[in-house]
Structure formats: C-alpha cells, structure tokens
Design goal:
The complex is a heterodimer of chains A (872) and B (110). With 872 residues, chain A is of the alpha+beta class. Chain A has 27 helices and 21 strands. Chain A folds into four domains: 69 residues, no CATH class; 186 residues, no CATH class; 307 residues, no CATH class; 192 residues, no CATH class. Chain A is 54% helix and 15% strand. In chain A, the strands form three sheets. In chain A, strands 1, 2, 3, 4, 5, 6, 7, 8, 9 and 10 form a ten-stranded mixed β-sheet that branches. In chain A, strands 13-14-19-16-18-17 form a six-stranded mixed beta barrel. In chain A, strands 12-20-11-21 form a four-stranded antiparallel β-sheet. In chain A, helix 6 packs antiparallel against helix 13. By secondary structure, chain B is an alpha+beta fold. The mean pLDDT of chain B is 84. Classes of the chains: A alpha+beta (872), B alpha+beta (110).
Chain lengths: 872, 110
C-alpha cells in the first residue's frame, strides 16, 4: 500500500508540519461553526461555548487523529530512545565501557569479516568465475613437479574435452620495451589461443586477438594494460598507429585491457599471442603453458577432471613416448589462487566471533548488574501502570542504543584494522581487495542488532520478570539467583578466553620454533634481485650463459661485494621442482627410486649463502663446461650409501630420455632451501648459471649494510649493459620474512584477540565481584561489627572469584582440545595438545583471575560497620 | 429538532463522507454541514469522530487533501475523492443497499 506508506512516512518525518496542519484544520472548523451560530442569532460567547460542547475536547480528537495516522509505535520508540539516551548519559562510565567493549568486539569481527569476504567469499573478478579452473599435468607416482603443458597438448585438450567451453594457457616473460624515452622492463604474458575468451573480459577499447593473429606467421599484435597505455599515450583512445617497440620492431596495439583485469599477474602490461602451431612449439615434451579452462555451465571440476583424464589416456595411446604416463588435475581457479589463506581466515573469523561472544557476555552481565540497581525505578514504572512488555521494550531500547553506538565505533575500528591486514598480509593473495563496503556496514549492523538482542533481551526480560514478581518479598533469593547467573556468564568468558589463549599460545610457539629453525645457510647481508631479460635469449644458451658470467664477474669486482651468484629460485622460498634420477654407478639390482629437489645454481652460490662444501668442490663457471652437479648431505646419505659421492654420475630419467649424464663434483651441507617449515630433502644442484633469462642474483655484502649496496649494483649493471634494468631488489632476509606472512598474520591476530578476550574476562570478573560486594555492604558491615575477621571476609570473596576462574578454566581445557584440533595443520614443531602451552595458559588465567578478585575483596574488608549502620 | 435526529450507525460515516465528496472537494466543516443539510437535519455527524475519520480515509488513499482558500477567504484543507475512493464508494454503496433490502425483507415478513 503505497499511499499508506507515504502517508505514514510523512506523518513520521514531517511531524511538526502535520501537527500544525491538524491544528489549522480544527481551528478553521471551530470558527466556521461559531460563525454559523452567531449568524443564527446567538451571542458570540454563547456560540463559542456551544461549539466547544459540540466538538468535545480538541486534544482527545487530536489524539484520535494521530492514532488514525498509525505512527504510535514510532512515537513510543522515539520516546524510548530519548529516555535511553538520558539514562545512559547519566552513567557515562558504564556507557563508555559498554560502547568500547562492543566497538572493539564488532570492529575486530568486522575487519576479519571484510578480509574473509574480500579474499575468500567474493568471487574472482571474472564473469561466471566459478567456471574457471586451472589444469595441471602430472605423472602419478613420480615426483616430477612440472605441471606446465606443451602447446600441442593444450590444443588437443581444447579440441577433445567436451566438458570445457574452452581451454587456454599462458606464461610470463620479461621484455625490454623501447617506445618510450628510456628502455623499460615490462612484464608480458604470452597467451595461447582463446585466452581472453576463457577469461571473458573484454578490452576497454579495441579488440581481442583474431584467429589469424593467434596462428603461426600471422600479423604481430599486442594488447596492453590500461596502466601502460596511460603511461605512453595519455588519455587518448584511438588505437590507430599506436604500437609497442620490442626487439627494435614495432608491434601494433589492437586493444587495451581495463585496469581491473590483472590476470595472470598484477604487473603484466603486455599480452601477446603464442601460436601453438609454430615449429618450435611442436615438441610434446615441452613444458610451457600454465593452463586454465572455462567449464561448461553446471560441470564440476571433478567431472572435468575425469573427462580430461579420459582424453589424456587416448592421447597416451597416440603418443606413447610423451603422453602415456601423464594424468591431469583440475582445480577451481579460486582455490588455486588462494592456497591455504582461506583456512587461516576462517580460523581467525571463528576466533574473533568467540571474542564478540565474550564481549556480549560481558555486556550482558554489566547490564544485569545495572538493571538490578535500577529495580526501584522499574518498580515505580510498573506501579504507574506500565506493562511488562513496555518495560522490556524500554530496557531493550537501551541495549539497542548502546549497540548502535558500538557498531558505529566498530566500523571505524574495522577500517583502521584494514591497514593492519594489508601490512601483515602483504604478498598474500587478494589482500589489496579488502576495503570498506556495504557488506561490512550491513554485517556490523546485524552484529550489533544480534548482539544487543543477545546481551539486552535476556537481562531485560529477567529484570522485568523479577521486579514484577518481586512485590518486595523474594528480594534476597532473587539477588542470589542473579548473582549465580552473573557468575555463570563470567565463567563462560573465562572458558572462552582460555580457548583463545591456548590457540594463540600454540601459534606463537610454532612461529617461534619456525623462526629459530637452523637454516643451514646465512641469509644476513645477502641481497637478491633480477636483471631484465627475455625468453628469446634462450635460443642461444651459450650466449646467455656468457652474459650471466660477465655480469657475475662485474659484480664480484664491485667494492663491498664479497660473493655473487645466480640461482633459479630464491633459497628458503618454496620452489617445489622435483626430478627423478638414476645413479649410473649404482648396482643394477638397486631399483629404489631416486627423487631429489632440483635447483640450478652458478659458481659462488655456496659462498654467497655460506653453505659449507663438505667434499669435492663447488660449481665452476660453466659456459661450455661438461655437466656437473653438487648434491647435499641428505642426498649422499640416502642414495649413495657409503659410495664415494664425488666422481659418481647421475642422469635424469623423467621426461628427457636424451639428457646427458652429469658428474657429481661436490657435496655440501644440508640447507632448508625449500622454506623454513619444510624439512631438508635430498637436493641436487645443477651447475647452471643461466637456467632462465632472469635468474635470481644473490650478492653477499662485505659489511652489514647490504641495502646500501643497491645503488652500487644498479650503477655497475648499467655500466656493462645499459639496456638492462635491475628490478625486484630485496634482502634475502626480507624474502624469508615474506614467506611467513600468512603465519604471522594469523599469529599476531589470534594473539591480539586472545589478549583482548582475557582482558574482557578480567573486567567481567572484577565488575561482578565489585557489584556483589557493593550489594552486600550492609551484610558485610554487620558481620564485621559482630566480630568476623576481616581476613576471613577477604578470603571469602577471593575464593569466590578464583573458584569461578578455575571452573571456567576446566571448561576452557575441554574447548581447547577442539581449538587445538582445528589448528593442527597450521602448527610447526608443537603438537595440537601441547601440555606446556596449556599449563602456561591456565597459570596465566588463574593469576589474572586472582588479581581481578583481590581488589574488590579488599574493598569488602574495608567496609566500615559504623558507616554502614548509619546509612540505614 | 433534537428529537428527529439519529445517531449514525456504526461504519456509515466513511460511506457518507465519500458520497458527499462525489460532486467535488470540500473541507471538513462543509462535509458535516452538507450531510446534515441533505439528510434534512436527521443525520448529525458526531463532531469528534469526523476528523479522525477523514485522516483514516486519507491514510487509506481514498481521499486526498489539498490546501485551498475557502469562500470566506481563509486557508482551509479540502478533501477530494480519489480514483480508489470512487471504487470504494461504489462497492460500499452496493453492500449498503443490499443490507437495507435484506433488513427490509426481514422486517416486512408476515
């Protein structure tokens, strides 16, 4: 009923106008009626009297008109809100505590909710993003971890798999773009046909690649990012005759992608087609493309996987040499993007919800105590004829008013907390997408409403009921019942705090273990960076290797640098590239499978990281040298079993049947190359200074100011190769630190939640005990007057406080078991039921409980009997 | 004259107000005057219930108010029948007639 709504809204929001109109209308009527009487010959005074008799009391008519307007409910609400505001303002201390408690509860909760929403719940920024999957090939049973797919196979999959709308692939490359004033390093994605169709994102302007351009020998074209376009061409939107310059050749730009499109990586500026039908792309053993696909509607990842595995089995019969052993894995793109972070965020969300629960419990017990103090006032309202429902509504309104202030504060706190997330979670997926949005506001408001019902309704009903029943007889039993209820609430808070503290304790211990893991290499004073290059250079591997060696030589002669090396992957950061080998000298009956972590390093690597060379020698400069490898002690111990390592030969057996054998030239100490939490695995270091065109450079500084070397390095590289840029520069310690981002995020946050929780519980305990002491002042005074020892009084209250704490702890231990189980796979070096952590937590909580009880207990003992009696 | 006056049966006030407004917009006082006049002083609108009734009808969207100038040059609130008010009047009139007829039948039985 639209007119009804409009009418009521007007009545509600234009109240004074509406009232004025009613007034005018009635006055007009009275006047006309009076004039009528006067016209019929009545004296004016008599006429006025008659009118009033006819009409009755104007006020009650007005009241009836207001009723007809249907806004009495709103009137009552307004009245209640005003009254609540006045009552709360009269107790600023109480109000502040409640609003702050609630604000922090809702704020922390809202912040984690926002993170969860942005990172986990919200879909990836593609249309129908749930249809997008990553596709990986692997060899069942073998440790070979390259999951990249040959171009020819991507085409076969796309052609043969019926569960997909399209399958495509991409790989990233660096190139030097020279259309600007200075050469610029640009990150580029080479994309297989159908890339933009799979992503389903259209260019801002221009078009995507044509089938012709995606074929070998087709016209060279590029699509660029909006950021790159702005940098080069400003605001113009005409594509005609615009091109990028790559390897001294202009490549026309056919489209500009919107800034929201950041796939496959945020720093990609150029997309170019990688034709699958070129002669160099024919090798089915090549591992080029990261592969993605778009499923047909209503197809699950599992169905797609079984379909693709069927296709792959057929390909295996067709190409037994390259395809027979391969299987296919299909993962939702979102899961592949997020990794473990979603579990961490859910854990944090659960914890922070427990915190909010504690906050609500705390406030509920505060309100309960406060309502008990207000019994007098409430019973007066009853005797003045207020219904029980009206009193409950009134008390609930107070809770709602508190809640809305709390949620306003909470939203502010949540927004401030985003900053914490971004800095703690730097490098984690999608962290930059966390922002203030309607979801957060709605969520906070519903938290506030839910919370105020949780903490407001219960005490309100209880109080109203108690006072109504009261009629002054059962006062004392009622007080005791209220106390019992309050103690239960305090116990719950203690139990939940123990749970959170235990979880935080486990994470802290595991983080501490992790930070103290002996790395086996020395990360201090080591700088890491890359130098621009592109995959085109891999056509001449010898030249590429020469370039690396020349750069290394230049770096080694730079003052302040003690050692320099290249490597395919940053040490200590997960790389996961396994290989399957055989040892040529091994007896023929030794059929044990040999798998090892593959790493590619140049000369000087073990110097730069100070990994000890145990036997033989380390890698030498290798432009034309015969293939050489270094193994770690774990490898030697596990696979060589007493044979002399140095001088033995190994051969890869995975996908390169023609691979030459390599000589083991040295054995080095075990190092945690795969990351802090990964145990040392048998590792083989291939002596290869140019495993790819942009390997990681490691430079060890002579003095402690490794960062100060950055400039010297840039200048030196510029001297020898002015066309190349140094980028991605960071200390090795920084990179190791980054690998702990997720771990640190959850540890820091859970710890702060746990500390807040125990503070709230302590406040709850203190507040409750203080309240009870103040309620029983008279009784205490009497007892003391009759000779009770003050010490006994103190002990009595202390026992009560500590008793509740201990009971809470007992329940908390039970909950902690569940907490530990939930955290189990986030722990390193501690068990999920770590006794010493639990013991420490319990000691801490009981100590805090005792501290919180001491002061009110002492205050009880200080009660002056004479004063109490005089107050009566 | 008091003797001939009748109290309005329950629920008929709304019907009378709507019918009175059919020729054109009127203000509250004029409505009550008109009802009294047309009914030859038999029907007397209880002054206390006229305005609540008007506000109720307005809320239901059957009449719409507008401020105008009265014949004695004063600002007055006029009520006009809306489209939905007309429909309501038609249906209420029908059921009223039906009621009268039915009551008549019962009263006239042998």
């Amino acid at each position: 009923m639209f007119s009804d709504l409009r009418y009521r809204l007007r009545a509600l929001f234009r109240r004074s106008t509406v009232e004025q109109e009613l007034d005018d209308e009635l006055r007009f009527h009275l006047e006309r009626q009076k004039n009528k009487y006067i016209a019929s010959g009545m004296p004016p005074i008599e006429a006025a009297r008659r009118v009033r008799i006819d009409f009755g009391a104007t006020d009650s008519i007005k009241e009836e008109c207001r009723d007809a307007r249907g806004i009495r409910v709103f009137d009552e609400i307004t009245r209640n809100v005003r009254y609540a505001g006045r009552t709360l303002a009269r107790r600023p201390g109480f109000t502040t505590v409640v609003v702050l408690t609630l604000g922090f509860g809702i704020g922390a909760n809202g912040a984690v909710f926002s993170a969860l929403n942005a990172v986990v719940l919200r879909s990836l920024p593609f249309p129908d993003a749930q249809q997008l999957v990553t596709i990986e090939q692997y060899q069942p049973g073998a440790a070979q971890a390259s999951t990249f797919v040959a171009p020819a196979r991507v085409e076969d999959w796309h052609r043969l798999a019926g569960t997909f709308q399209a399958i495509t692939g991409y790989f990233l490359d660096d190139l030097t773009e020279t259309s600007g004033e200075l050469p610029e390093r640009v990150s580029q994605a080479w994309v297989a046909p159908r890339f933009f169709e799979v992503c389903s994102v259209a260019p801002d302007f221009g078009r995507i690649f044509t089938r012709d351009e995606e074929r070998f020998g087709g016209p060279a074209v590029a699509i660029v990012s909006e950021r790159f376009w702005k940098r080069r061409f400003g605001d113009t939107r005409t594509l005609r005759q615009r091109s990028v310059r790559i390897a001294n050749r202009p490549v026309p730009i056919v489209g500009v992608m919107p800034s929201s499109f950041t796939f496959p990586d945020t720093d990609v500026d150029i997309w170019r087609p990688s034709p699958p039908d070129g002669p160099y792309a024919a090798n089915r053993a090549a591992t080029w493309f990261k592969t993605i696909g778009r499923l047909r509607p209503r197809v699950t990842a599992d169905q797609a996987a079984s379909d693709l595995n069927r296709v792959q089995a057929a390909l295996g019969r067709q190409y037994p040499a390259t395809d027979a052993k391969l299987a296919v894995r299909v993962t939702a793109l979102k899961i592949a993007t997020l990794g473990g972070i979603s579990k961490s965020l859910w854990m944090l969300f659960a914890s922070v919800s427990v915190l909010l629960l504690i906050a609500c419990t705390n406030i509920a017990s505060l309100l309960l105590a406060r309502n008990a103090e207000r019994r007098h006032e409430i019973s007066i309202r009853f005797s003045l004829g207020a219904s029980r429902a009206a009193v409950v509504r009134q008390l609930l309104t107070e809770a709602l008013v508190l809640a809305s202030f709390g949620s306003a504060l909470g939203i502010g706190i949540a927004v401030a907390a985003f900053q914490v997330f971004r800095s703690l979670g730097a490098g984690l997926p999608r962290m930059m997408e966390i922002r203030l949005d309607w979801a957060l506001v709605l969520y906070s408001l519903s938290c506030a409403v839910g919370a105020s019902i949780a903490f407001g309704l219960f005490p309100a009903m209880r109080t109203a009921q108690a006072v109504a029943r009261d009629a002054n007889s059962h006062r004392r039993t009622e007080t005791i019942a209220t106390n019992r209820l309050q103690w239960t609430l305090v116990g719950i808070q203690v139990a939940l705090s123990v749970t959170l503290l235990f979880g935080a304790g486990l994470l802290i211990r595991s983080f501490d273990r992790l930070a103290r893991v002996p790395l086996g290499f020395d990360a201090a004073r080591v700088l890491t960076f890359r130098i621009s290059g592109n995959w085109g250079e891999t056509i001449d591997m010898v030249a590429l290797t020469r370039r690396m060696l020349a750069t290394l030589d230049a770096l080694r002669t730079t003052p302040g640098i003690a050692a320099a090396a290249t490597t395919a992957a940053v040490p200590g950061v997960s790389f996961h590239y396994d290989t399957e080998l055989q040892i040529i000298e091994a007896p023929a009956d030794d059929t044990a499978r040999i798998t090892a972590r593959d790493r590619f390093v140049s000369s000087g690597y073990f110097d730069a990281l100070q990994i000890p060379v145990v036997a033989g020698s380390q890698c030498q400069d290798d432009a034309t040298a015969p293939a050489a490898v270094v193994v770690n002690r774990a490898f030697e111990r596990l696979y060589l079993k007493g044979r002399t390592a140095v001088g033995s030969h190994v051969q890869e057996i995975a996908s390169r049947p023609m691979a030459p054998s390599a000589t083991i030239i040295g054995v080095v100490g075990d190092a945690r190359e795969e990351g802090l939490s990964e145990p040392v695995a048998p590792t083989i270091y291939w002596c290869n200074s140019a495993p790819n065109p942009t390997p990681v450079f490691l430079v060890r500084a002579r003095a402690d100011n490794a960062a100060g070397l950055a400039d010297a390095i840039r200048r030196r590289v510029h001297e020898i190769e002015p066309g190349r840029a140094v980028y991605d520069l960071a200390s090795l310690e920084q990179r190791l630190d980054d690998t702990l981002a997720e771990n640190r995020l959850r540890t820091v946050l859970l710890t702060s939640f746990a500390l807040t929780a125990i503070s709230l519980a302590a406040i709850g305990l203190y507040g409750t005990l203080s309240y009870i002491v103040s309620m029983r002042r008279r009784e205490i005074g009497l007892r003391i007057a009759m000779g009770a020892l003050r010490r006994t009084t103190v002990l009595g209250f202390l026992k009560q406080g500590i008793g509740v704490t201990v009971a809470g702890c007992a329940a908390g231990v039970w909950l902690s078991v569940a907490m530990g189980r939930g955290l189990a796979d986030m722990l390193y070096g501690v068990t999920a039921l770590d006794r010493s952590t639990l013991a420490a937590v319990l000691t801490l909580v009981i100590a805090i409980g005792a501290l919180a009880s001491v002061w009110p207990a002492i205050r009880a003992a200080r009660v002056d009997p004479i004063q109490v009696l005089r107050e009566e | 004259m008091g003797d001939e006056r009748l109290d309005l049966p329950q629920g008929t006030l709304d019907l009378l107000i709507l019918r009175t407004l059919t020729p054109g917009p009127l203000h509250g006082w004029a409505i009550s005057e008109r009802i009294q006049q047309v009914s030859r002083d038999v029907l007397q609108v209880p002054q206390g219930s006229l305005y609540p009734a008007l506000h109720r009808l307005e809320r239901r969207g059957w009449i719409s108010p507008q401020w105008g100038v009265s014949d004695n040059n004063r600002k007055a609130k006029y009520y006009a029948l809306t489209r939905r008010g007309e429909k309501q009047l038609a249906s209420e009139t029908r059921s009223w007639r039906k009621l009268i007829d039915a009551v008549g039948l019962v009263l006239d039985m042998d």
